[in-house]
UniProtKB/TrEMBL annotation:
Transmembrane segments: none annotated. The keyword Nucleus applies. Residues 27-44 have a biased composition (Basic and acidic residues). SUPFAM superfamilies: WD40 repeat-like. This is Cleavage stimulation factor 50 kDa subunit. PANTHER family: CLEAVAGE STIMULATION FACTOR SUBUNIT 1 (PTHR44133). Residues 1-74 are annotated as: Disordered. Residues 9-18 have a biased composition (Polar residues). Its main location: nucleus.
């Protein structure tokens, strides 16, 4: 059996070898052909590689050119990002990255754009907004002036619950019928000097609780006093670095931080609490040598925003993180991030005023702000992205408009112009509801809603009169309630609400900052 298997095994091997020799002859011929084709193939591959290299070099050159073009474009866009239009968007992006714990990306983006995340937005705000808008069809409607006005009713600031507004008799509301019967009042006026300056007193401001009053002068000094202090009142001279006339004072919405804008092209940010502590410390140590004086001065150094033109007016956003400002001989509003001090401006020049902006003000929630100008126009802006919502042309017969103010419900605006008129307009349709004043041109005109918005205070200086007129008007009926006389001996340049009732603070060119006590009583003839 073993021999049979061995024999068969050998025979099979011999047969295989024989067949293999024939196959080898055939394979040798095939191999020769394969070698020839392989050589040709290698030659082709070498030529292709050369072509690829040439093409790659050419493509690299093209890509380099494209990269250079893109880099140039990015360099151009760097300046564009200083636009306010995208600032709030990137703040929300930073907040979303922080919410998702993408810290490396968060830190990289934060360094590149020099912004902070929007701490006021809710968690996952951007993602929730994306989900909400994901399935909305794109709008093909071209926005017009009318559609922009209609948009105003979509803002939360104009959609507060009626129960909140209508039940408060101190807030102006023309839709409330409770004020259809006119009341007759008599008035008792008393004035008290609070602060005295050697030169013209230009402006004044009080803090959120209205227990601190500050005034500024044409000689660049700022003075401060605590109102209604039971102890003996002390007047503090604020240490500031202004060198020219101070045009505007504003307080932070929640903190004792004062903003001052001057003709020296600077805005100073002053911590009033530190100023008070410094004065107190100097008072108790007036006969002692102070150590580490330089260190103390560095710690108490005011923050300064520098520009090339004098600052005229300011508006601090209610959140306290942003400051709006306008300059002399400039027709644009500038937004400053108070954390980084970066300046942002809208890039759409077609929306600018055509002349110097006189005054800026905004709603109590910051959703909308407005500006008035020498060009005689009122512009209403979106507080979230600074897009222009509406322009009211020739609102005061083409005359320069001096002041603008929003009421507490944000439904109405109050403007005063050099045409001698003061107007209340409805923000929802821009119809003029009431016009106050004699309609004679003047050199100064400013108005505010009083604490009780049923009344407005108006300071007015005619062309041929040395001092200012001070009127109280009825917001519902348009009549003059009272003509306040002999409170100042020169022009009244600024007026703000005091803490109590209809009381106000005034700043005058006679150098005095006063509290005007206005006691309103029902008339016995009523």
């Amino acid at each position: 059996m073993k021999g049979f298997l061995a024999k068969n095994f050998l025979s099979s091997n011999n047969a295989d070898n024989k067949n293999g020799s024939d196959e080898n002859d055939e394979r040798s011929e095939i191999d020769k052909n394969d070698e020839r084709s392989e050589v040709d193939k290698n030659d082709n591959e070498e030529s292709n590689e050369n072509n690829d290299i040439d093409g790659k070099i050419e493509n690299d050159n093209i890509n380099n050119d494209n990269d250079e073009a893109e880099n140039n474009e990015y360099k151009k866009k760097d300046n564009v990002f200083s636009s306010i239009d995208k600032m709030t968007f990137y703040e929300c992006v930073l907040k979303q990255l922080a919410d998702d714990n993408l810290l490396d990306t968060y830190n990289t983006l934060k360094r590149e754009i020099s912004l902070e995340e929007n701490v006021n937005s809710e968690n996952n705000f951007l993602f929730n907004l994306y989900q909400k808008r994901l399935y909305n069809n794109p709008s093909n409607v071209v926005e017009t002036e009318e559609t922009n006005i209609n948009k105003l009713t979509e803002y939360n600031s104009l959609n507060k619950k009626k129960s909140h507004i209508y039940n408060n008799n101190l807030i102006l509301n023309y839709e409330n019928n409770s004020n259809t019967i006119r009341q007759i009042y008599s008035y008792e006026i008393n004035s008290r000097i609070e602060l005295i300056h050697k030169n013209k007193c230009i402006c004044c401001a009080n803090n959120a609780s209205r227990n601190i009053l500050c005034s500024a002068s044409s000689d660049s000094t700022i003075k401060m006093i605590k109102i209604n202090d039971l102890k003996k009142k002390k007047i503090f001279l604020i240490d500031n670095k202004h060198t020219k006339k101070i045009n505007s004072l504003k307080f932070h919405p929640t903190k004792n931080i004062l903003f001052s804008a001057s003709d020296d092209c600077k805005i100073q940010i002053i911590d009033i609490n530190k100023a008070l502590k410094k004065k107190k410390k100097l008072y108790y140590n007036q006969y002692k040598h102070m150590k580490d004086k330089n260190k103390r001065n560095d710690e108490e150094k005011n923050i300064i925003i520098q520009d090339k033109n004098p600052f005229i007016s300011m508006y601090v956003h209610p959140c306290g993180d942003f400051l709006y400002a306008c300059n002399k001989n400039e027709n644009i509003i500038k937004l400053y991030d108070l954390q980084t001090l970066n300046c942002f401006m809208t890039t759409n020049k077609s929306t600018y005023h055509s002349s110097t902006i006189n005054h800026i003000s905004g709603t109590s929630d910051g959703h909308i702000y407005g500006s008035v100008s020498v060009d005689g126009n009122i512009k209403i802006w979106d507080g979230l992205n600074s897009n222009l919502i509406h322009t009211q042309y020739n609102a005061h017969n083409g005359y320069s408009i001096q002041s603008i103010e929003f009421n507490k419900s944000n439904f109405y605006i109050l403007t005063s112009g050099l045409d001698g008129q003061t107007k209340i307009m409805d923000m929802r349709n821009f119809k003029t509801l009431y016009t106050f004043g004699n309609g004679l041109s003047c050199i100064s005109n400013k108005s505010i809603f009083m604490n009780n918005e049923s009344f407005i205070a108006n300071i007015f200086q005619a062309n041929d009169i040395f001092d200012s007129k001070f009127y109280i008007y009825n917001s519902y009926f348009g009549n003059i309630e009272h003509n306040i006389q002999n409170v100042h001996n020169d022009k009244i340049n600024d007026i703000i609400n005091a803490r109590d009732g209809l009381d106000v603070h005034t700043a005058s060119y006679d150098g005095f900052c006063k509290t005007i006590k206005i006691n309103q009583m029902y008339s016995h003839d009523n």
